[in-house]
Amino acid sequence: xxGKISANTTMLLGPDxxxxxxxxxxxxxxxxxxxxxxxxxxxxxxxxxKKIKRSTLxxxxxxxxxxSKPEPSIYFEADVIILYHSTTIHTNYQPVIQCLTIxxxxxxxxxxxxxxxxxxxxxxxxxxxxxRPEYLKEGMRVIFREGRxxxxxxxxxxxxPEEEVNKLLEARSGLAPTSAKLTSVPDxxxxxxxxxxxxxxxxxxxxx
Length: 208
Description:
- It is built from one helix and 14 strands.
- By secondary structure, it is mainly beta.
- It folds into two domains: 4-70 and 192-206, Beta Barrel (Elongation Factor Tu (Ef-tu), domain 3); 75-172, Elongation Factor Tu (Ef-tu), domain 3 (Beta Barrel), CATH 2.40.30.10.
- A hairpin with a 2-residue loop joins strand 9 and strand 10.
- It is elongated, with a radius of gyration of 19 Å.
């Protein structure tokens, strides 16, 4: 959670199964079961959302400011380290990604500068969520696991276009002469401001 949020504020809720964010109005705010007018970063809070069914909410959804232009991510890149694996990890391996309240299976699409990874190896890896897009930010830490396999990582890029991924895969298969690496891009402005009181209008809050 970052920023501040008050009752009767309109925010964006998402992403849904299609990656969309919908505007919602916050009817009331509670902190430790007590009604409050405003909450800020570091506080635990619950929100009553107007005209939103409970069945539409899921873990991993966030509330963001309406002017933040959030982007859902199907593809994302992370610098990872393999803590343990009994054999080797290669492309198409499908671990479960855990990041804050996000928990979803993802597939390894590409491993930069390596064919396989073993225990103790570090690499930059391109992942693809298997079921639905999620809201991620650069710098978030992720844990991935499958059986006894465990790994850690830090997200370096989010919302990678599918066209760029297709070009990467073509290059890896030898259908294009370009190098099989993702193109580095300048740091993009994050959708949410830092946890500073000087930026009160940007906020994220994960759905319980």
